Amino acid sequence: MKYSAFELDVVDGVGHVTLNQPERGNPFDLAFSLELNQIATELDEDSSVRSVLIDARGRYFSVGADLKTMATGREDLPKFIKNATTGLHMALSRFTRMPAPVVASVHALAVGGSVALCAAADFCLAARSAKFYAAYTGIGLVPDGGGSTFLPRRVGTRRATEFLMRNRTWTADQAAEYGLINEVFDDDNLEAESWALARELAAGPTVAFGEIKNLLLSTYEQPVEAQMEQEARAMVRTTRSDDGWNAVNAVLAKQRPTFTGR
Q1: Which of 146, 165, 169, 255 is geometrically suited to a Cys-Cys bond with 133, CB 3.0 to 4.6 A?
Q2: CATH fit for domain 6-202, picks 3.90.226.10, 3.40.190.10, 3.60.15.10, 3.90.1150.10
Q3: Strand order of the sheet with strand 123-127?
Q4: Residue 48: pLDDT over 90
Q5: Residue 135 reports pLDDT greater than 90
Q6: What are the φ/ψ torsions at residue 76 (nearest 5 degrees)?
Q7: pLDDT tens per residue, range 156-209
Q8: In the structure, what pLDDT confidence band is assigned to residue 148 with cuts at 50, 70 and 90?
């Protein structure tokens, strides 16, 4: 399928999603949100996809909300927001729930909703020159794209409150220190390091990765006993997978496990 806001390819088990409107700053408009949902669904249903790498082209990773579109009509703005967030939120839900781990690779400034996207990703790597700008309260708005869910999970409620309410900008080094991103690389090395991580994950036990993702999503909602029961059930499901059974036996035979994603 041809997309207007993205490029999509699957290489070596990696679903490669590139934000591809560099002349506009890769804004989160209605077309972006609807297409991202289509992409998330396509990747979630493709059994060959065992990790996802999200990056961007241009001067910005993303400028966030498309303010020009939002300012065209006050009366229609609520409907625009509801329509745009429907696609965006479903896309992020699918990325969050799919077994394949998601890696965000941020080469430049990320604004607003794109910071929420980074927080929602399972891994986030950044170039040393990248920055992360809250933006929401600067235009009198609030987080979307799961920002109020995932940002506190990554950096804690106190830090998230300060970032959002005081409209902060974090450098890549600050974002790594606070827990928003995993690691910072020199600008010239980011692409290679991001692909290395995506390929590493694509070669791993995809079923187990999916179970871990779901367990981490429920950990703040469940009593400890309920969470441990979910762990037991997830363990059972992984032992029923080919990867789980074969890997246990490979290790017992002092061999290196090979994972197929099944």
Answers
A1: 169
A2: 3.90.226.10
A3: 6-11, 14-19, 51-56, 102-106, 123-127, 183-185
A4: yes
A5: yes
A6: -90, -5
A7: 999 999 999 999 999 999 999 999 999 999 999 999 999 999 999 999 999 999
A8: very high
Enumerate residues 6+ apart whose C-beta is below 8 A from 105: 53, 54, 55, 124, 125, 126, 190, 191, 194
Report domain extents, the chain.
Answer: 6-202, 206-252
CA angle 231, 233, 235 (to 5 degrees): 70
Q: Is 203 helix (H, G, I), strand (E, B) or coil?
A: coil
- Read off the amino acid at residue 88: L
The pTM of the whole model exceeds 0.85: yes
The answer to whether residue 84 scores a pLDDT higher than 90 is no
